[in-house]
Design brief:
- The two termini are 27 Å apart.
- Helix 2 links the parallel strand 1 and strand 2.
- With 219 residues, the protein is α/β, with parallel strands linked by helices.
- It has a domain of 136 residues: pyruvate-formate lyase- activating enzyme, CATH 3.80.30.
- Helix content is 39%, strand content 13%.
- The protein is globular, with a radius of gyration of 18 Å.
């Protein structure tokens, strides 16, 4: 898997922010956690109106990330830095929409609580959870089909990111479905959302950004 990444070239990203800054617009984009390594870029992003970045974290634990990328193993390598990176980005007033995939090989029933704990503890402003989806014709689909793990071959109508059309390992399909329901109920209720976002405002204040008090961020 390869993600969209606006800031894969950090210098180009800085130039983009300088161009966006005079426009006075608020915007959202996709990137990876390495933006957290560049303080200048984070400052420019906030000044330019970037109010959220979507980052594919996929799993709070490293094991399920091994081998999920086609040409590299970056996410497994970056995994130990996830918590620090999220907090550093959000301390600059840029919220993180953390994305997780359910059903990766090696995820057991503990994965649902681990995702909930990570999102809550580190104050992810927004969270996206989806089910591993093998689209017909992709390398993932071909591998799972070869392994006899596609439940209903050719079913494009089940490629919704929320339906389960494969045999996960070690979970059963029903455990994966029920885990998704369990996690969604606890991630997206009003109290949980409020607590996560409260944590974000604390992170920004702790980052000593004087404009943090009274800040409003569009969802």
């Amino acid at each position: 898997m390869d993600d969209d990444n606006t800031f894969v070239d950090k210098q180009w990203g800085k130039e983009l922010c300088e161009t966006m800054r005079p426009l006075g617009v608020k915007w959202f984009t996709e990137t990876d956690i390495t933006v957290a390594d560049d303080e200048e870029l984070l400052e420019l992003m906030h000044r330019a109106g970037c109010r959220q970045v979507l980052i594919g974290l996929e799993s709070p634990k490293r094991g399920p990330l091994e081998g999920i990328e086609m040409h590299a193993n970056r996410k497994a390598f970056w995994n130990p830095r996830y918590a620090d990176a999220v907090e550093r980005i959000q301390s600059h007033g840029v919220t993180v929409n953390g994305c997780f995939i359910l059903g990766l090989d090696g995820q057991d029933t503990s994965a649902f609580a681990e995702i909930l704990d990570f999102a809550t503890t580190h104050g992810l402003y927004d969270v996206q959870v989806t089910v591993l989806t093998a689209f017909p014709g992709t390398p993932l689909y071909c591998r799972l089909l070869r392994e006899g793990r596609i439940l209903q071959p050719g079913r494009w109508d089940l490629c919704t990111l929320f339906d389960v059309n494969f045999q996960p390992a070690p979970l059963t399909p029903d455990e994966l479905r029920q885990g998704l329901y369990w996690l969604a109920e606890r991630l997206y209720n009003a109290d949980a959302t409020r607590q996560r976002r409260k944590k974000f405002y604390t992170q920004w204040r702790d980052g000593q950004h004087p404009k943090a008090v009274g800040m409003e961020v569009e969802s």
